[in-house]
Amino acid sequence: MSEANPDLLDFSGRTVLVTGAATGIGRAIAEAFSARGARVALTDRDPKVIEVASVLGAKHLGHVVDVTDEAGVEAAVAAVDKAFGRIDILVNNAGIGPLAPAESYPTAEWDRTLGINLKGAFLVARAVAPGMLERGFGRVVNMASQASVIGIEGHVAYCASKAGIIGMTNCMALEWGPRGVTVNAVSPTVVETELGLSGWAGEKGDRARAAIPTRRFARPWEIAAAVLYLASDAAAMVNGSNLVIDVGYTIA
């Protein structure tokens, strides 16, 4: 493209940190950034993330970390900073979704879900923010869910955690936007990952697909494409938004 029409989805020279990147949506996001020229730091509590990073190429980095471990998060961010010089883009993707009725939801599972999905996202964002704010540039994309704006049976902790992601996104966007760091969220419907398909298998999945206007679940690359947009120069004026990717399911 010419200088007048730059490739706004070219991430050459950018460093991206993706959490929960060993599988599913996180891996698709890491692959998409790599394909567009970025250096990608992939983190996950699953040691498989090291292999995934190596498959992407020598310029990428895999790091094993539990996002609920404050010291571990800070050490991981410091390691990425040391290896790449800075972090330009953070994608907070790590998450879980154990299910149970609200009246019998185990406290331990509530704590675990809120710890990974919400506290973990906060800890990583807080760790990368100082460098972004000092440089006056950064992109943070937090993975929420359609469950952030509607109730879903059996998802009491998941819904609460993802609604919390939206509140956190709004506050960070308000505070950091004037300093060059945009913060946005992505809220997908069910996605065709191993986790998504196992949770929505059989008749339950058939009913869910029937309620979605396109009659299908989203695909990981479709979510990755939305993340790339929000992290790109094309979205420089987008801040504090929640991009819902559900083909209109939540407006019904």
TrEMBL record:
Residue stretches making up the Ketoreductase domain: 14-189
Keyword Cell wall biogenesis/degradation: no
One GO MF term: oxidoreductase activity, acting on the CH-OH group of donors, NAD or NADP as acceptor
Database matches in Pfam families: adh_short_C2 (PF13561)
Domain of life: Bacteria
Keyword Oxidoreductase: yes
Keyword annotations from UniProtKB, A to Z: Oxidoreductase
InterPro entries: KR_dom, NAD(P)-bd_dom_sf, Sc_DH/Rdtase_CS, SDR_fam
CDD domains xrefs: SDR_c
UniProt cross-references to Gene3D superfamilies, sorted A to Z: NAD(P)-binding Rossmann-like Domain
Family: Belongs to the short-chain dehydrogenases/reductases (SDR) family.
Protein name, entry field: D-threitol dehydrogenase
